[in-house]
Amino acid sequence: MRGIVWLILLFTAAAVAALTLGRNDGLVSLFWSGWRVDLSLNLFLLLMVGACLLVFALLHTLSLLFGLPERARAWRLAQRDRGAQQLLREALVSLWGARFSRAQRVVQRLLTLNAKTPELQADAGALALAHLLAAEAAHRLQDRTRRQEQWDTALRLCASQGQARAHEEAARLMAVGWALDDRDAPRALDLLAELPAGAARRTQALRLRLQAARMAERPLEALRTARLLAKHQGFSAGVAQSLMRSLAFDVLASARDVDQLRGLWLQLDASDRRDPFVVARAAETMAAQGAAADARAWIRPLWDQLAQLSEEERGVLADALALCTSGIGADWLARLEEAVARFPRNVQLPLALGHTLAELQLWGKARQVLGTAAEEQRLSANQRRRAWLRMAELAEQFEDSEQRLHCLEKAARAT
User: Fold this and answer.
1) Does residue 25 have a pLDDT over 80?
2) Which UniProt keywords apply (predicted)?
3) Which of helix, strand or coil describes residue 183?
4) Which residue has the higher pLDDT, 14 or 179?
5) pLDDT value of residue 278
6) Rounded distance, CA 190 to CA 260, Å?
7) How far is the CA of 223 from the CAs of 186, 250, 255, 259, in angstroms?
8) Which pLDDT score is estimated for 283?
């Protein structure tokens, strides 16, 4: 089809030329040393066009001839650049394939090729990437000295070229991962602190910060980082809640006295202080420090919203309250009796009520309630054991040694 089109165009051009130049009777006379040459105007024009084309072809040929060295140099550079790219891909494949020694050898060949080619050395980003690959391979081979040398070289290359900022951030994040692998949490945190603000807020940087904070036993910092990760959707909702709850437990467990525990409680996020599980753990920890009144004060806001909590959350709060009955007032007795009547299927509430009755020296009713709770198989062994031990204390108050021994035996057998 294309040939037919060209043929039609040729016929058209011939027809136009015949119509335009067919009646041109002009002559061109050329005089040279007594000679005269007469040419038709049409022939003269064709010769001029041919001469121009010939001159153009000659000039183009000369340009190509004189440009051969530059083209040869560009071809050699392209070949070396193609070879460097091939070596870079080979190094990546070897590294991902766990062939770390081979990856180091390939990177060394790549660096040697770059050293022989000044044009390739101008690309600081590619050189930095090669050194980072060598550093990663050295890390996998546990060669820390070589790893540090390659990493330092990569950083110097990044600093020499402003466009290599992304490579520098990548190098620092890689170094953080290495520090965590080496169990060097302080160095990991120092490297994270050197990151620019934008890079430090990335999900991967936050994940590394979380690992470093947990490794350094900084639960409060880890909790704040986990909360940022949850906002960035770094975890699923269920995993985020479980993780933050666990970290809040670690924060509370790090307290050494009542004052420190109060301070840590105030540093927790408001959402943590509304979590029944965190509140229960905080109350238990505070009660163990001998400040049961403060523990009950933390429980009280959630206790007033028992109806809005799940059955498990009500049970956790009731169990925590059972450990915080030292010095409890009669106002809590009314709240507990109301809760027991309102949620009859909850087995932890009667246990808390029994401990409260015992603390208020309502021993007769306490023995009845605790006796029922101690036989409740839905309670954990530890909860039933505490009920039997409290009943043993009540039996001692009544100077009933036989009942006391019976309760202690039951407590020992509780499983």
Assistant:
1) no
2) Cell membrane, Membrane, Transmembrane, Transmembrane helix
3) coil
4) 179
5) 94
6) 26
7) 17, 9, 15, 20
8) 93
Which H helix or E strand runs over 180?
helix 165-181
Q: Is the pLDDT of residue 234 over 90?
A: no
Judge whether 225 lies within some domain: no
List the CATH number of the domain containing 111.
1.25.40
The answer to whether residue 310 sits within a structural domain is no
Contact 312, 327 (CB under 8 A): no
Q: 38 φ, ψ to 5°?
A: -105, 125
pLDDT at 326 over 80: yes
| CB half-sphere exposure, 48, CA atoms < 13 A | 8
How many domains does the structure of the chain reveal? 1
Count of all residues that appear for the chain in the document: 415
130: containing domain: 81-160
What does the alpha-carbon distance between residue 315 and residue 6 come to, in Å, rounded to a whole number? 92
Rounded CA separation 4/355 (Å)? 106
Could you give the 3-state DSSP secondary structure of residue 345? Answer: coil
Amino acid at 109: R
Average pLDDT over residues 89-117: 88
- Contact between 358 and 387 under an 8 Å Cβ cutoff? The reply is no
Residues 6+ apart with CB under 8 A from 400: none
Run of H or E including 215: helix 203-215
Nearest to 374 by CA among 356, 394, 340, 347: 347
* 259 within some domain: no
To which H or E segment does residue 187 belong?
helix 185-193
Q: What average pLDDT score do residues 6-15 get? A: 78
C-alpha to C-alpha distances, 139 to 127, 157, 181, 212, nearest whole angstrom: 18, 20, 9, 18
CA distance 248 to 272: 7
3-state helix, strand, coil in the chain (%, to 5): 80, 5, 20
The answer to whether the predicted template modeling score (pTM) of the entire model surpasses 0.85 is no
Which residue reads 């709850």 in tokens?
245
Please say whether the beta carbons of 158 and 165 come within 8 A. yes
Whether residue 270 lies inside any domain: the answer is: no
